[in-house]
Amino acid sequence: MSGINWPGVGAIFHHEMTRFFRTVMQSLLSPVVSTVLYFVVFGAAIGGRIQSVEGVEYGAFIVPGLMMLTILQQSVSNASFGIYFPKFSGTIYEYLVSPVGWIEVTLGFVGAAAMKAVLIALVILLTSFFFVGVHILHPFWMLAFLVLTATGFSLLGFIIGLWAKSFEQLQIVPMMVITPLVFLGGAFYSSDMLPPFWEGVAKLNPVLYLVSGFRWSFFGLADVPVGVSLVAVSLMIAACCVAIRWIFATGWRLRE
Amino acid sequence: MTGIIQIESLSKQYGSGTKALSDVSLTIEEGEIIALLGPNGAGKTTLISIICGLVVPTGGTVRVGGHDIRTDWRAARKLIGLVPQEIALEPFEKVINCVRFTRGLYGEGPDDAYIEKVLRSLALWDKRDAMTRELSGGMKRRVLIAKALAHRPKVLFLDEPTAGVDVALRREMWEVVDQLRRDGVTIILTTHYLEEAEEMADRIGVINKGQLLLVKPTSELMGEFGKKTLTVELSEPLAAVPAVLGDRGLRLSPDGRSLAYEYDTRADRTGIARLLGDLAGQGIKVRDVSTRQSSLEEVFMTLVAEPRQEVTA
């Protein structure tokens, strides 16, 4: 195989980002409004009754969880919609007849979906500064976890978009799987707060490792070792890449 | 001479067991226009889809510009432009951005001067900033052509380019194809409109039930299989065809002023001279004569009804 068609990657990335900026207000406004509501409900109403979690003010404690919640939802929905829409409108043929392979298509779509999710997460971080005092202990690792998680879940969303045959299927995985995993992944609490049995169950949830690693980058607190979090997200990225390569090689749900 | 497209023993069987193509071999020369004719489900679109990369073949090989479409697919695809049968466009994108996007996919850097040339040649320049959803059906089809030409392909596939468009637009599309021919682009088109193939193609391939029945130059095909009708305009109207003119199958027009005589161009004797002689012998004065070639539709129906002919590729 000859080298990567970088102008092809750029064309897909630019095309996807243009779509995002065309609807920038609704792309940003909706997650920001949701986050403000979370801060009001969990931070002010409930958080007022919780002094602190592991020495961190509750309002600040939930900031990494909220960012993770957003990044997971946005990554999956952006990437799945990004590749599903050409399938729905019929323009997918262009990607299949042009000299772009699975690497270019994945880099273009997933790169754009992850970029959008990271931008939205950063806007949410900025929004949180209006409500709570947040100090980021390890900014580099915070960004690294953000980018790695956005990449991993954009890849997952991309697979969902390739698999989906209808808009219903496109929405069912994020709704039935991703959101529960995030809520049960310690976005709003430390897994130490759970009874021992449920703490064990929670550790089967891959999202727990992401939230934990991400929270560590903010406060130096983690439910699981940071190295395990990094390995978890790296494994997820690798597994998704293998699956996507297989889909393009076999043409499953793409070619006859 | 090696053609720009070389297809050898190509076959495709779908998972359901349906055989869409059986052992198709064909060589297409650079700069020619070849029309693939066949009824629905004949395998025309499958053939195009395999060459372009949309469908994976079960057997056989295809080389485009010497590049195998499976092992050297990037180089092969760079030479190809495809205008699909269905109109599929990003609805919320400007025309010019659609074309720029396709150019990028093919690994080409920006070239707005070339894109302007393409859009102007397709009468789309004035619509360059319009959203594609605002365009008429004919314009959308031209945008698809502009996209297919965005990277200067050597081979252009047009899958049913005038399906569902009105007569005026069909003419317009033919002019576009004619311009592309002058620019030296090799064109492979599939069509249901037999008149279209007759009008545009240098060669015609007839496909039926996944088999390429024949490929011949259009004029040769028409000459070989075509029947002609001789129309004899009479100076004085006749009440009926005189019995002496025999059973030639002559048809008298309702006003009695013309006789129609159908003859086979492949026959050793067409019978025209004898007919005119017999008319003169009967004292019937002839005012004018004209001939009309039978339509390709009739040729096509003859072909698919006959046993398989030898392929001349």
Automatic annotation (TrEMBL), chain B:
Pfam families registered for this protein in UniProt: ABC_tran
SUPFAM superfamilies: P-loop containing nucleoside triphosphate hydrolases
Keyword Iron: no
SMART domains: AAA
InterPro entries membership: AAA+_ATPase, ABC_transporter-like_ATP-bd, ABC_transporter-like_CS, ABC_transporter_ATP-binding, P-loop_NTPase
CDD domains in the cross-refs: ABC_DR_subfamily_A
Keyword Transport carried by entry: yes
Top-level taxonomic group: Bacteria
Sample GO molecular function, one term: ATP binding
Swiss-Prot/TrEMBL keywords: ATP-binding, Nucleotide-binding, Transport
Domain ABC transporter intervals: 5-234
Gene3D superfamilies: P-loop containing nucleotide triphosphate hydrolases (3.40.50.300)
PANTHER family: ABC TRANSPORTER ATP-BINDING PROTEIN (PTHR42711:SF10)
This protein's name: ABC transporter ATP-binding protein
